[in-house]
Amino acid sequence: MCGEEVSGKMKMKDLPMDERPYEKLEKYGEDRLSDAELLAIIIKTGTKEERVVELSQRILKSNITKEGLSSLYNTSIEELQTIKGIGRVKAIQIKAIGEISKRISKERNFLKYTIANTSNIVDIYMEEMRHKRQETCKIVLVDKYNKITYDKNITIGNINASIVDPREVFKSALEKGARGVFLMHNHPSGDPMPSKHDIDITVRLKEAGIILGINFIDHIIIGDGEYASMKEYGVI
Q1: pTM above 0.70, yes or no
Q2: pLDDT tens, 150-173?
Q3: How many CB atoms sit inside 10 A of residue 45's CB?
């Protein structure tokens, strides 16, 4: 029997009626609930010592989630289980809802935008990439109408650097018949200032795109809420 189901834990029904997140959401709407109340609906039960909303509040105040709900994107199942009251099942539930929210946001933005400029594509991928702990390179392909048709992580490096192979950048573009390619990568430090390596690889990709007849549109570096565009810097 899973440890999450141990009897004696304080459940949602133990709360006063006007404090129960389920009933509060149904009566007033989801936007009226706090972050802790929304999280409480996901994890369902508290512990013998505390109610589920109190447990949720403690999760959001813990060291591993000190940046709030957004911290859950990169908090592992193992890290979540170091919080008292969070076992395997609750940790998996939290990770699952984080991934669902990320995918919903991405799908909505895919439908919303024709990529007219760099800020459009940053709007789509900022939340996905700004929290990554390792430097990750992603290609984004667009069609002749500048609509996104495909994206893929091509390289995951260590926290300081990643290596980008032009063959990997353009392989999918050729296979998918893309008209344009964006390259994106994050700086885990949060500072999007390009390095010499970033500039060098941008020049190489620009030249490769010319040879292959595929428009290398931009190389975008994602920081913590900020970005740097090699096109805007004049490198492309």
Answers
A1: no
A2: 888 888 775 455 567 888 889 989
A3: 19
Higher pLDDT, 63 or 126: 126
Boundary of a domain, candidates 81, 103, 125: 103
Residue 206's domain comprises: 113-229
Cβ atoms 175, 165 nearer than 8 A? no
Same domain, 119 and 223: yes
Is residue 213 domain-shared with residue 123, that is, in the same domain? yes
First to last CA, the chain: 59
Report how many domains make up the chain. Answer: 2
For residue 96, what pLDDT is reported? 87
Q: What is the three-state SS of 24-51? A: HHHHHCHHHCCHHHHHHHHHCECCCCCC
- Check if the beta carbon of residue 186 is closer than 8 Å to that of residue 130: yes
CATH number at residue 89: 1.10.150
Tell me, yes or no, whether 235 lies in a domain. no
Residues near 98 by beta carbon (within 8 Å), at least 6 away in sequence: 72, 73
Which has the closest alpha carbon to 163: 121, 191, 205? Answer: 205
Pick from 116, 109, 119, 167: nearest CA to 142: 116
Q: Provide the Cα torsion 112, 117, 118, 121; round to 10°.
A: 10
